[in-house]
Structure formats: structure tokens, C-alpha cells
Amino acid sequence: MKIFSCLKSGFGRTLRSWKGVLIVWLALFLLVLVxxxxxxGSLKSAFGSSMITERLADGFDIEVFADLGPALKSILSSVTxxxxxxxxxxxxxxxxxxxxxxxxxxxxxxxxxxxxxFRAGSVNFWSFLFISFLITVILNFxxxxxxxxxxxxxxxxxxxxxxxxxxxMITAGAVTLLLIPVFLLVADYSRSWMASHENESCFRAxxxxxxxxxxxxxxxxxxxxxxxxxxxxxxxxxxxxxxxxKPVTGGGVFLLLIVSQLLLFTRLLFKTWxxxxxxxxxxxxxxxxxxNINHIQDEQGRINPVTG
Amino acid sequence: xxxxxxxxxxxxxxxxxxNAQIINKLPLSDRVTGYRIDVNLDTGSKTVNGNMEAFxxxxxxxxxxxxxxxxxxxxxxxxRTTYYTEMRGSPGNKDSDLGxxxxxxxxxxxxxxxxxxxxxxxxxDGNKEDKTVIRIxxxxxxxxxxxxxxxxxxxxxxxxxxxxxxFTDDFYFVAQWFPKFGVYEAAGMRYxxxxxxxxHQFHATSEFYSNHSVYDVTLNLPTEYVTGSGGKLISExxxxxxxxxxxxxxxxxxxxxxxxxxxxxxxxxxxxVDITLLIPGNRVKQVERQFTAVKNALEYLDQxxxxxxxxxxxxxxxxxxxxGAGGMEYTTLFTSASSTIMPDWLHMPxxxxxxxxxxxxxxxxxxxxxxxEPWLDEGVNSYWEERIMDNYYSSKSGLINHRLLKVSDxxxxxxxxxxxxxxxxxxxxxxxxxxxxxxxxxxxxxxTATWLHTLTGIIGEETMNNVFREYYRKWAFRHPSGxxxxxxxxxxxxxxHGDRFGSDMNWFFDQxxxxxxxxxxxxxxxxxxxxxxxxxxxDSVDAVAMEWPNTDSLYTVxxxxxxxxxxxxxxxxxxxFTNGDEILEKWDGKERYKDFTYTGYREIEWxxxxxxxxxxxxxxxxxxxxxxxxxxxxxxxxxxxxxAFIQFFFSIMLL
Lengths: 308, 655
What we know:
The complex is a heterodimer of chains A (about 300) and B (about 650). Chain A has helices at about 1-15, 20-45, 60-65, 70-105, 115-125, 125-155, 160-195, 200-215, 215-245, 250-285. Chain A has about 300 residues and is mostly helical. Chain A has one domain (about 1-50, about 65-295). The radius of gyration of chain A is 23 Å and the shape is globular. Mean pLDDT of chain A is about 85; it is low at about 290-308. Chain B has about 650 residues and is of the alpha+beta class. Chain B has 3 domains: about 1-260, Immunoglobulin-like; about 380-510, no CATH class; about 520-635, Sandwich (Immunoglobulin-like), CATH 2.60.40. Chain B is built from 12 helices and 31 strands. In chain B, the strands form 8 sheets. Chain B has a 7-stranded mixed β-sheet with strand order 4-7-2-1-13-16-15, with helices on one face. Chain B has a 5-stranded mixed β-sheet with strand order 18-19-20-22-21, with helices on one face. In chain B, strands 5-6-3-10 form a 4-stranded antiparallel β-sheet, with no helix packed on it. In chain B, strand 21 and strand 22 (about 335) form a beta hairpin. Chain B is elongated and about 110 Å long. Chain B starts with a helix and ends with a helix. The mean pLDDT of chain B is about 95. The chains are: A mainly alpha (about 300), B alpha+beta (about 650). At the A-B interface, helix 2, helix 3, helix 4, helix 6 and helix 7 of A face strand 24, helix 6, strand 31 and helix 12 of B.
């Protein structure tokens, strides 16, 4: 029952923080737009007054882009370097925005306050950046090992029976999928704790993340799996609807933009629900540092002591 | 004397059997050469050793003083051979890595030892370290009609790094493994001015120019090996430890075989052709794909070129340890290339299968000289491979059929040629090993296929099919040259289109096959100007005003075209007007620029050169059209998608 009460509480907190989610969406949208807009200009300029773009009506046509010749090379080179740069900025920006969101979804933060959002973001920025970086590295490393080594062995073997091969690959995939929620829990618990202990070391936060994950493992794990599955829904829509939908008019293209951004906003809402539910779970089970008691407010904004 | 008589009788029986029919009812070729080979595979020393009897018939009117044979396994003898010099590689440092062929006995039908009369020659590059061609001075010159029979004892050590042929662990792919005759070209054959042997060294880029021959091959090897070959299995004896297999192949240009304990064998049938597939056990899922691909190729080439004349066909999907043997052709045996994980949307295995099978026609049946005219072998075959793939797997997704990316086989070849920075370095008319700057593949495969598609666009697909039907009818089981192919094109095009393309199609081949120019047409602009009435005193009547009463809304419009490239090909030009009218103009493409001017109550909205993309050689389709109102929606849609996918990616990757 604890799981559902945390999910319910997290959902409520997420709805109250929708403006924070909007800020996150807008920030990332603008960031990617900064990268995309010049790309759009380059493509328009490269195709000029040609009618070859008709051939893109049915989807991507490699021949059309190949014929751009040297223009394509310069576009690809700027896209590659631009993407790396945007990803790096996105990673840093995300640390700031996530810190704001974790600050917003804490218990007692009744009304969303942009001021509080940005304050939490700035105060916890470095800690969140470090935690995100560390968990991302660990997650990628573990995934690479658990998934990469068995697949490599299976691919190289010429005599392994099909059934064994299938079993090895399924097992590797399943283990990877089972491990991902664990590290997400560590990351979320660490950040949630950090949001409540602003002046503490981020190493302590990570330590707390690990201990909290494994001390309340099953309830935390099941809750995380449910939240990940929920996040998959808009993702599936994005991956299926967008490639299949081929509007040919300006209005249709604009509608595509609106729908895709709504789906992405929904996905961010679900992600925030994850943060809020984990925070809720932490608050229900963890002993909060008394030094930070003055930060814990009830839903009406009153300052309350926190029970363990 | 007794020994001599026995030898003579055995050889006579062998020659008789070589001309006997076991597979087909009638011989398909002249059978200028024939081979009976009896060998053992020694899996310890990685050698194939035994003896062979072979004959060559002098069907020319020349008196020929010598014979020439190739010993292509010697290409793997050291890193100083022509093959490795061209490859800039090495066969390996250890003795066990090297490949070679040693002849221990060489006699003629009279038992005369020919070994002292044998010498290594290097007709292509004079490389003394290359021992891939031998010349044997005959004790008596071969008179017209003579049959020269030889008996050879040989040992072939297989190379460890499989490049087309060799072994890895217990996998064997054995090709270019026995002494084989070159082709004696009498005066008038292909480009021969006087009779001479055409027997090239082994090069990095090509390996085939041979007579159609009969092969009777007996192989002795350990029982656990699963085997396949270009022949039809005649008998198999197994004593528990070793087995002896006897194959016969008729009218093919080379005989290769493979052995590996890990093969699974599958069979299928198309019309009267028994098809055998040897594939690693863990690729069972791909069996159906492979059979479908080969049957598609059989059907398409049978319909559009000519019948596949053998009742048997074996193909091999080599394991990863033997991937160097993949993508090769030995007429009735070929190798595909695949891997254990191969998504359905990626048609690479099918493409390789279709391509290598196609060589049964272009090189196997139509035995052109791959060394001297690789385009006639690889290029023509690539053209058919692309047609087959795009026909059976969709014209837009013959090669890749993923919902996010679709690529046709024809497009991939066109892109490889049109985007190559070396596309103008050399013409297609070059010996295979002389292509500079790594242009061999692009020129031989992709450029040829692209100009053949262009020719199809000009003369029409049915005429092109008729060209190949006639080419097959006239040249099957012979040695056609590029000139012979062009002659067929000229005859068929003239027969079907009269003078529409001129007295012949040489103008096309001069530019595409023998030239190195590029083809690029461009619509440089559209001009829509209001008609200006003549002002002042005029000596004559304004004819335009006479024809068009309302000159206030009258326009003089111009579609301005350019030929940027050197290649001049006839193109269609489609001009669309604001009132919906369309005019299809023909432009012979000879001028550097061309204006189509019209007067009327309408403006030009857009212009397209080659609206149906028939001229595949055009290196830039983007400048082939011009519109006053460009359609941006597809571009914006693409950009919106990229935007959404990057945001989605960030939402996943950023914790």
C-alpha cells in the first residue's frame, strides 16, 4: 500500500509543480531549437528553389541528401559537433533544472514558486551535476558489460545452438532491464536527499541513495518499474506516431510539432512523477537530518517537523 | 612402351568421358579444356595433394608452340607477389600462413617430362617474385585441331588468411587450387589481332578468364567434414574415418569446393534446378531468406536474359571465421555473406546472394575477361543485381527497408558513383589492376551499373531486356568482349527504335564507358515577363499583337537550362504553367545552355529536367528542377522530427 500512497502523493506533487515541468520543457526545447534552427536554414538554402523536396514527401530519401554533395558534408559536420555541444549543455542544464524540480516536489512545498525552483536549482547545481554524471557513467558501464560481453560472445560463436544463443541474449537483455531501475533509484534517492540537505556532501547523498535503495528495495523497485512503464507510454507514441505521420501541408506540419511537443511534455510530467514519488517514498521511510527541518513545510506552507 | 600405351588409353578414356554427357543432354560449350582431378585433403598440413589429367584442344588455325597455365595459389607465397604488392598486405609470417602450389611431375600424353620445359612468367607486370603463371614449351608445337593432354602431380598448401581461398581452423574454402589453362585467343577473338595466350597473373581485383570446361573431381577427406562444390555429386564412399567424394561439373569456368564440420545443409528446388545451401547451424533463421533471394534471381534472369542451364546450384554462407571466402562466385557454386544477427529490414545477405548468383551469367555463361574488362563482368552483374533487388524487395527499399530509412539498391550504386571524388580520374575502359587511386570498385561496379541504368532510361527497359536476351543468345558459353556487347546494343536498338537514337549507340558508350566526364543538367531559372509592345514608329506589323489580342496580360516566359557536365545525353524537360498546362519538351542536351521560350497568357510555375529520373548518371538531381514556390513542408516536417527525437533522446539519457 505504501507504493500506491507514494505514487498518489507523487502524482499530486507533480501536478502542483506543472509550471516547473513547463520550465524544464521550455528550456530543453529552446536549447534544441538553437541547434535545429540553423540546420533548417542550411537545408533550405541547400535545396534552394529545387522541387527535389517532393521526394521527401514519403519520408527520408537518401539519394536526395546525397546529392547535396559538399553542402551535406558541411551540414553533417556542423550537426555532429552541434549535437555534442547541445548534449553537453543539456546535461549541465538538466542538473540545474532537476535540482529545481526536486526542490519543488518536496513535501510541504504547497504552491509552486519559480523563485524557489531557481533557488533550489542554483544551490544544488554542483551536487546534482556530480550525481547525474556518476550514475550515468556507472549505468553505461554496467549496461556495456552486462549487454555487450554476452552479445559479443554469442555473435562470434559459430557453433552455439540457436536456443542457447536466444537464451543468452534474452538473459543479458533482461538483466540489463532489471538493473536500470536500481541505478535510477540510487540517482533519485541521492538527489531527493540532497534537495533536503542542501549543505551536505554529494558523496553522502550517493551513499544515502544506495543505502535507501537497498534498505527498502522491493517497495522502491516495484514503484520504479511502474513509473518507468508509465514513462514508456508517451515514448511509444513518439516512436510510432512521428515516423508514420507524414503531413504535406504547412498546417499539418505545425500540428505535428504541437502533438510531438505535447507528448514530450507528458513524458517530462511522468518523469517528474518519478522524482516526486521517490521523494515521497524517501520522506515516508528515511530519517531526515534535523538540521534541515526548517525546510520542510506542509502543503499549506507551514513549517513542520519531520517524523522518521 | 607398355606404360606409354596405358597412359594413352587412360587419356583417351578421359577425353571421351569429358565429352560425354552426365549432367546436361548436350554440351553447352566447345569444351576446349577438361580436367580430371584426384586429391586428398590433409587437414594436418593444410594441403591438397594429388594428381590431375587435363587437356587443351587447339581450335585455332595457328600452330601453337606452348601452353600457359595459372597457379593462382602461388599468389599467397610471400608478400612480394603481385597480389600482395597490389593489396599492400602480407599472407602472414609463419610458414603455415602461406599458400602455394608445387608441381612435382608434369608429363604429356607420351610420358615426356615437361617439367624442364616449364618456366614462370609474369606477362602483366614482369614481377619475378610472382609465380602465378607458367609457360610450358611443347616438345612438338600444337597443330590446328591437336589435343594437348598433360598429367600433373601437384601439392597445394592452403593459405591461412582466407582471401577468397584458404583455411581457418577446420574451415576450408578451396578455390584457385589446381593448375588451370589460360585462354588461347585466336586472331579475331575479342581484341586479338594475332593468336596468343591470354593468361594473366593473379591480381588483387580480379581472377577469372577461363575456358568452359568439364571437371571430374575426386576428393578424399575426413568423414566429419560437410562439403559442397560447384559439381554434381556422383558418388560418395565412407569407410568410417575417411570419405571419398566424386563430383562432376560441365561447362563451368572454375571448380571450387568447401569443407567444414559446422555446416548445416538445406535443399530446395526451382523448376529443374536443385539448390543446395550450406550455412552455419546458428543461421538457420536465414535459410528461407537465402532461398527466396536465389530463386528470385533465377526467375528474373531466366525471364529477362536467358535460361540457367545447369540442373544444380550450390551456395554457401561462410561462418564468421571464414568470412574472407564470402561474396565470391564459381558459376555453379557461390558464396554469400551474412552474420548471425541480421535484421529482416537489412537485405545485405540477399543482395550478396543475388549478386554472386548473377555471376553464373556474367562471367560464367558469358565468359568475358574480368582482368581486361571488369565492367563487363562486375558492372553488368551489379546492374542486374540492382534490378532484381529493387524488383523483388520494392523499388524504394531494395537494400534497406526500415521504417526510418529506405534505400534502394540502384540508389546506393548511384550514390557511390556520383559522390565519389575520384569519379573522373579514369574511364571504365581499363585493366582491372590498373585502376588508380582505389577506383576499381567504384568504376567497375557502380559507375557501370549507373550508366547501364541510364541506358535503360534512354532506350527503355524492354529494349534493354532484349539487348541482354540477344547478348545471351549470341555469346553464351563463349568469350564476349565489350565491343561485342556494344555491337549487340547497336543492332537491337536499331531494330527496335530505327534511327531515333542515330545510326548507332556509340555516342553513348564513347561518353560513358570510354569517357570520364560527368553528366549534370541544371535548370538555371525561370523568367516570366510581361509582353512589351513595340513603341515608337515601327516598319512592320507587331505579329504578336496580331496573334494575341489582349497584350496587357500577355507574357513572354523562358525556361533556362544548362548542361554543366561534359556528358551529352537526350533528356525530357517538363514545363508547368500557372494555369495548369504542361509541356513536355525534348532536349538533345548537346548545347551548353538551352532556353525554351513561350508567349501567352500564362506564366511558368516550375520546370523539371528528366522528371522521371531516367538519367541515373546525372550527378545532381537537386538542380534538375526549379520552382517559384518551393515546397518546404517535407523539409520542415523532417526538421520537426529531428527536434522531437533529440528532445526524446535527452529525456531518456538525462537522468
